[in-house]
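Let us practice reading a record.
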Amino acid sequence: MPWCKTWAVGDLSRLLGLAGTLRLDEIDSPALRGNPLGDPARRPLAIYTPPGYDAEASRRYPVLYCLHGYTGDVGALIAVRPWETNVVQWFDRLVARGAMPPAILAVVDGNTRLGGSQYLDSIHNGAYAAYVVRDVVGAVDARYRTLAREGGRAVFGKSSGGFGALHLTLAHPGTFAAFASHSGDTYFRYAHIPSFAVTQRTLETYGGPQAFVEEFERRPKRPQDFYTTIEMLGYSAAYSPRGAAAFDFDLPFDAATGELRDDVFARWLAFDPVERVAAGAATLSRLRLRYLDCGRRDEYGLDIGARIFTRRVRDLGLEVRHEEFDDDHRNVGYRYAVSLPALTAVLDRD
């Protein structure tokens, strides 16, 4: 069992104005030790427990696991900003006003030097899927009064976190009973290919992935093409790693000409949720809720991906809760008011 310790308790809850309690734990993950990028194996894990948790010592609760998006981390998800409501505050308010039953929220950290892991097991990044489903879930079940079974767990996230929710559900059947994907990465042909030309030009200018990343890390302020480029490097490290050494991954295009490398992009497509529906039919069929939503003006075309995924799952004869709304990719946390009650409604209760 991974070693786990708890940091300060009361100050975080007061800062966020919570009726429940937010704790910041630390996980020492065996799955992440010795990864080639040198990313830490010790990770923060934010845990929210609902009002009455400490007083009701015999009661057990379902757990919702929250996955951040690309460039996110635990600190970003629990940050307090004027005029905004973070995921912990949404969770707390929904419980406090009776819009959903009491539950535990676990906010997972999956960041890397390249901005994100996509929650995959990668020889380049480290075993981030195993870290979540084995180390994090195991530590939460050991430390907190959970319903430690499939029916007591759901996973959700936005953007790359939405992709992670889909991936972990498909790759590790029996871990989660439900998922919610908000603007999740799907249909890579639309979502990613438009960024390849920018990435090729930038890497050519700065002498390849390692030199570019070092320049990226040196700069106090970075142009937009830098963020596009490091994002594509992060995806390459997750989807098309080559070996267990830093920057040892295949790009989905020719570094000199920019021509699409179909063999490498095929490795990316093997992780695309829309391409995994048929093979994942048995896993999808055991779920109690399959939830996707996306803004109709999403900059990455992820609304199209959600539509395609939904259609393919429905073609299997399975129900999907799929919603669209008038917005783009950013600042759509208000959608948690829809997904979180739906997830907790299908989970086991004590």
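A brief commentary: The chain has two domains: 4-186+273-346, 190-269.
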